[in-house]
């Protein structure tokens, strides 16, 4: 029935007018209720369960300010709460997660076998990953991302990613193990003053990551903004113009996913070693109370999380392990963006 006819009928019959008003009011309340529920769901969470790292990257913004790690009953409880609150994807990060291979293995197994999450991923500097670990844990991991900022060993050393220029060797090794054991391989790069003019396109095509995340070097107050912190990233910053030049040089690559400083701020849900959410946006870094103490919803309210920016930066994509595509694939599929 056309809307005008429906209205005419409703106006001529007062009882129908009242029913229509009630129905519309109910639909509006339900719509806004769903929207607010959606924005409070931790769909994709980055759990930095350790701050300990064997590298000293000059721009690091999650530095070793504590050596704490939660006992297994606590992290299991925390991950369970997140799943109940709507988590679909979990990314383990550090520090360097592979400094604790047994803990990492237990976490991945719990996330897949017990929580049945859609996607489990790990971000690593690649130096401590072994073939044995991958072989034994492949079915619990969908994605492994390795961070590497240059294909020039001297540049990686100058940045602080290792001391002997071995970073690229590790990167290639992990890429081949991922291909062998059916895990999606991803690469992360931070664009800084030491690598912004490098052309990495041919190397990326040869490695064929399904996603190449490229970040603009970021200052985070309390982590890397001056000489009093563990890192001082000021000398490594790039101008917007240098960032643009790097992006234009690599923009033709299908797997290329750039993230400027503006896109990064507040578009990640970062959980630290105590299961507190961190806000690394503008100004001083802020920290929520632990989800173990106040629950997920309350802890999320204590930090900014911009769901729109999360979706805009491509935070939701084909994150399971079945779909294949990549920079080296001639028929690479476009990453599908889901709607919330
Ligand atoms: S690999 Fe570098 S950026 Fe990553 S945690 Fe270690 S020092 Fe920080």
Automatic annotation (TrEMBL):
Q: Which organism is it from?
A: Microthyrium microscopicum
Family matches, as InterPro entries: Aldolase_TIM, Elp3/MiaA/NifB-like_rSAM, RSAD2/Viperin_antiviral, rSAM, rSAM_sf
Q: Identify one Pfam family in the record.
A: Radical_SAM
Q: Which domain of life is it from?
A: Eukaryota
Q: Which GO terms describe its molecular function?
A: 4 iron, 4 sulfur cluster binding; catalytic activity; metal ion binding
Keywords for this protein? 4Fe-4S, Antiviral defense, Iron, Iron-sulfur, Metal-binding, Mitochondrion, S-adenosyl-L-methionine
Q: Which residues form the Radical SAM core domain?
A: 39-248
Record bears the keyword Iron: yes
Q: Which GO terms describe its biological process?
A: defense response to virus
CDD domains to which the protein is assigned, alphabetical: Radical_SAM (cd01335)
What is this protein identified as?
A: Radical SAM enzyme
């Amino acid at each position: 029935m056309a809307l005008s006819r429906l209205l005419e009928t409703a106006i001529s019959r007062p009882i129908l007018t009242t029913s229509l008003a009630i129905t519309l009011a109910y639909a509006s309340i339900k719509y806004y209720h769903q929207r607010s529920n959606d924005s409070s769901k931790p769909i994709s969470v980055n759990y930095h369960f350790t701050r300990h790292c064997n590298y000293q990257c000059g721009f690091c913004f999650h530095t070793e300010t504590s050596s704490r790690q939660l006992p297994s009953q606590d992290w299991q409880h925390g991950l369970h709460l997140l799943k109940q609150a709507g988590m679909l994807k979990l990314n383990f990060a550090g520090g360097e997660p592979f400094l604790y291979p047994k803990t990492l293995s237990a976490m991945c197994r719990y996330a897949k076998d017990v929580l049945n999450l859609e996607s489990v991923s790990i971000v690593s500097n690649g130096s401590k990953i072994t073939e044995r670990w991958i072989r034994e844990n492949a079915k619990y991991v969908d994605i492994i991302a390795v961070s590497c900022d240059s294909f020039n060993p001297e540049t990686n050393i100058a940045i602080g990613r290792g001391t002997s220029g071995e970073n690229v060797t590790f990167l290639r090794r992990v890429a081949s193990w991922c291909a062998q054991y059916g895990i999606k391989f991803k690469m992360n790069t931070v664009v800084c003053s030491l690598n912004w003019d490098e052309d990495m396109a041919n190397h990326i095509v040869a490695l064929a990551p399904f996603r190449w995340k490229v970040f603009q070097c970021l200052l985070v107050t309390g982590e890397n903004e001056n000489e009093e912190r563990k890192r001082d990233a000021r000398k490594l910053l790039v101008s917007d113009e240098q960032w643009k030049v790097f992006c234009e040089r690599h923009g033709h690559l299908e797997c290329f996913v750039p993230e400027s400083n503006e896109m990064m701020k507040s578009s990640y849900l970062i959980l630290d070693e105590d299961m507190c959410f961190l806000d690394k946006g503008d100004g001083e870094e802020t920290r929520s109370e632990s989800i173990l103490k106040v629950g997920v919803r309350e802890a999320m309210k204590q930090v900014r999380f911009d769901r729109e920016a999360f979706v805009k930066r491509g935070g939701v994509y084909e994150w399971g392990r079945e779909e294949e595509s990549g920079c080296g694939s001639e028929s690479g599929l476009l990453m599908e963006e889901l709607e919330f």
